From TrEMBL:
Classification via SUPFAM superfamilies: Acyl-CoA N-acyltransferases (Nat)
GO function terms (MF aspect): acyltransferase activity, transferring groups other than amino-acyl groups
Lineage per the UniProt record: Bacteria, Bacillati, Bacillota, Bacilli, Bacillales
Source organism per UniProt: Thermaerobacillus caldiproteolyticus
Protein name: Ribosomal protein S18 acetylase RimI-like enzyme
Annotated Pfam families: Acetyltransf_1
Ribosomal protein recorded as keyword: yes
Domain of life, source organism: Bacteria
GO cellular component, one term: ribosome
PROSITE patterns cross-referenced by the UniProt entry: GNAT (PS51186)
Length: 176
């Protein structure tokens, strides 16, 4: 019997702490250079260690959710749910996730998503929004599996390294 090593990767999801800031800065920079699925190119909108410390502190104080994923005692990804501060939109949160390419396919993104949905449902958040590149089929399939629906398409929203324009899909999950 052939064993799939991916089945044995243990990963833990936990809240980010200020001591994670240095590694978060480094892995965000690395992830941005590994994929075009995200909004940024490597180095754009760079957040240094102090910036991440402040973000983690602000998130804790404002009831946002900032999670890190660990595999083999190493941070390999993270996600954030940012609540909308405006009263008319206070029922919503924006979700985003990043995972090192080396760790794609291990269920880390799925686990971060599941924890974020649980947090939202437990904290009175009625709607989670996200955006995803139209070519990111695996992510779109995952989001749909967890109750997200396509709410709109931003046509020719971004240009990638091949010089072509691609659509951004806007998705949302409403918890009644």
């Amino acid at each position: 019997m052939k064993v799939n090593p991916k089945e044995f990767l243990m990963n833990d999801i936990r809240p980010a702490i200020e001591e994670d800031a240095k590694i978060l800065s480094a892995i965000r920079l690395q992830i941005d250079g590994e994929t075009e699925n995200l909004d940024r190119e490597k180095g754009e909108a760079y957040i240094d260690e102090l910036g991440f410390k402040q973000l983690i502190k602000d998130d804790a104080e404002s009831s946002n959710l900032f999670l890190v994923a660990e595999a083999h005692k190493r941070i390999v990804g993270f996600s954030r749910c940012e609540r909308n501060k405006l009263k008319r939109f206070s029922h919503k949160a924006e979700f985003g996730v990043c995972v090192l390419k080396e760790y794609w396919g291990y269920g880390i993104g799925k686990n971060l998503l599941k924890e974020s949905i649980h947090w939202a449902d437990s904290n009175g958040i009625k709607k989670i929004n996200l955006s995803v590149l139209e070519t990111n089929d695996k992510a779109i399939k995952l989001y749909k599996k967890y109750g997200f629906e396509v709410e709109g398409i931003l046509k020719k929203d971004r240009v990638l390294s091949d010089g072509n324009y691609y659509n951004t899909i806007l998705m949302g999950r409403f918890n009644e």
